[in-house]
Fold:
Amino acid sequence: MSLYKKCEQTPISLEVLQARWRLFGHVLRREPLIPANKAMACYFHDNAKRARVSELKKPSMNDFLNRLEGSGWLKHIAAVIDTSAFIARAISDGTSVLVHCSDGWDRTAQTCSLAGIMLDPYYRTMQGFQALIEKEWLGFGHKFTDRCGLLESVEVKETSPVFTQFLECVWQMMQQFPCAFQFNERFLLTIHDHIYSCQFGTFIGNCEKDRLDLRLSERTYSLWGYMSLHSTEYLNPLYKKTYEIKRPVIIPNPSPQALRYWRGMYNRFESGIHPRENVQDISSAAKDHSVSLEDHVLLLEKRVTQICKLLGKSEEAIQRKLQGHVSMDSIEGYLSGHIGDSSSASNNAVTPNYYNHKTGPFDLPEPVEMVTLTSKGSFDSVAQLEGSKGASLGGSMNHIKSDSESGFDEASSQLSRSGGVDELVGGVGGTGGGVLQSPGSDILTVEQLVAELKTVAIGWKSFRNVFSCSCASPFDHYVKKFHCWKCGQVFCVRCIARSIPLPGHYHRRPVPVCKPCYREVRRSPSTEFPLS
Amino acid sequence: MFDVIENGWQAFSAETEFNRFKECQEDWRISYVNKDYKVCPTYPQAVFVPKSVEDETIIKAATFRQGGRFPVLSYYHKDSKTVLMRSSQPLSGPNGKRCKEDERLVNSVMGMGKRGFIVDTRAQGVAKIAQSKGGGFELEAHYPQWRRIHQPIERRTSFHDSLIKMIEACNDSSSSMDKWLSKLESSNWLTHVKDIITSSCVVAQSMDKERVSVLVHGSEGTDTTLLVSSLSQIILDHDCRTVTGFEALIEREWIQAGHPFRTRCNKSAYAITKQRQESPVFLLFIDCVWQIWQQFPCSFEFSEKFLLTLFQHSYSSQFGTFLCNNERERLHCKVADRTVSLWSFLNRMEILQDFMNPMYEPNPAVIWPSVAPQSLMVWTGLYLRGVIDQTPQDEAWKEIYKIREYDQELRSKVNKLRRQLASLEREAISHGVVSPPVQKAAASSGDGIDNMASPLVNNSL
Structure:
């Protein structure tokens, strides 16, 4: 130390790696390890209990806590987090730090990468985290093949769950700071799976030279490529960019009470013990839904403005319309039309399922809300909604006024005889007579409007009580459920593989849809949507 | 102070509560036999008893139960038409005394051929010891349709010790991990939580799945009995998971049922001297509700903060709701005149909106919590709120709230605009600015229907 002036040496003891493997090995592997010598045998016996912790059939609370304590696993996690916090605090206070252990590729990698996560918000994003792993673990030569015991030739005492520990430390930090990470628990679990799965070449080999020698970049796929294709599964809906500015450095609480048992890792496939409702996934779905509705709102506003311009309304009136005010003229127009076609018997219009604001947000049985503006049913529900929203229709509901000069009656009776809007959609092929070129804007037809509105579901189905996809693949707690943006039903990742722009959206970005909806949108000849 | 809009003292009267069980009103009635509190000093004036049993029978039956707490109706489960009743232990004593009136009261609850379970919250050994001291349990020979099962929960005296040990462990933030875990284990607090939830699940399962009525009792009928009866209702009845339903539950099953708040919630974990009567029974109930809440975060209308507030008010409050030990004392001290009810305060919109759960979706089904040790956790927000900074969790909930609010806003905006569009289209068609859609010819209407079929197929999924 005398040669290194101005340096303070702080020895921090983190337990040696062999011990850690003993205690952890049984969690993943079911067969007991043969101890190398007598000392190890005692340790082995104590720590074999750890596996029993996760596997106990009918454990009591005290049994569980006892064995958790006996395994010492959380103690190690606490030690790693503590050390990293120490480093992070030192750097944040302005002291440079040099970290080393004996070999420099286990505990050093853990503490340095954790300190990086604490200090730099970039490493809490998905891309940053991947860069961190590339830098601290792959680049600095953490011996993945040896530590994971991927080859038979690897000695037992080389194997140790060092990277697993690191991932758990990251998870503990995610529990303490739920808004600070761009990725979620599923991200960590997927990486962990693929360290052992060998499905991707990223974690094969012990160092960079190994990876070059094996020519992995030519012969295998990278995990990061796969994960970027599925990045929607790994996003944390609570992540806020502003958090990075407000709180760039996050130091976790060092007290033992702050650490939790990682149920998702050690009891992952026991769905009964996880919370039955996944708040993160539901919030994620709500966010996507908001994006869809935002785009739809833009389109609706554009259409409203278009029609207003066609009708020659003033700017002020247009603004009022956009705010949702319905004028009395148009209401009376409804009424007279309604009275006019009361004589027409063949009224088999489809009753639409207007979204009732009073029911729960995700609880709709029929997902498609069609604006059946022409059928009698829609008038009723619109009127009801108006009534329920407190609009002052009041006495005018009973106001009888015939309005035959505008051809209104004829139009409404025509439409009601046609049996609703669906046939109109079917009849889109012939555009003769329905098209009017409006000055300066695109062609506007009723069919097109209806088609656009049909493609965006106002309500998405609730995740509650959805246990399998329509393709019969089961959903467990950690499998992400997806919504089709057109029909709002719930699907698995394979059924939702297609994306297509929807006519109901203003920006026409491709959005995930299910296979039937994909086929339907491709077939529908909406004039604004080019058939590719 | 503030204006009282809805008077909490009158919000949850027995009559209004009985209306909730209207399906069972053919067999049950409200009895005012206890109107002077002479039959049972700890019961309220109005109790729910079987219609076929007269008040005189009840008076005699009450002498056979400890503290006069005879079996009364606690909850009626509509789906399976079964009832949940609670009482205290029968005073059968070492000689196996009988009481015909008590037997009549209990046996008349069910029709012929139906079965019932008597859930005793004491272990069998403890019940036998109680018998030798004058208490005891119901002998199956005398109550032939009822089967007795023991779902042991520790005695309330051990709850207090557990709380003290656990709070001590929680506050020691500089201890090692090993010490924390071993202290937590030796406090047994989570074991109590597990036992209580397990017992409640057994009761709920009996009522819902096996369609069997249940009678719950411990020894005094004021502690573990109420824990089990109220928690079972949380599991079975979705109404109890709403704010008003939960408040009604607390009123009915704890406050009016005579849980001695004054003696139990005296000083809590930091008391220097331990009093025998003191015990955090209500806190255990709130903890168990929280455990179920975090397993079903979308099924409760209220948030964690609401539970925390109730806990705080049960110990120390500016409101009179949790004062005194039972209704008789409250009447005597004129609590309703001299204090304001907590419910009057909490149920005001501007206060209540802080306690609503943004993730709430009404869940009418019965919810089955997991009692695996991995599923039960230490309630950080309560026991560790002094040790661990809760700001990041609060921020996360605010974010969730914002996401949901924005989604709702967008929905209503979309609906408004769609309606607007509809009315404008009508107008445009009527003014001839946009032509109405083409009327399909009869010949091609076949095609139209085929084309119609495919969009509809998706819609009717």
Remarks:
- The mean pLDDT of chain B is 88.
- Chain B is about 50% helix and 10% strand.
- The longest helix of chain B spans residues 391-430.
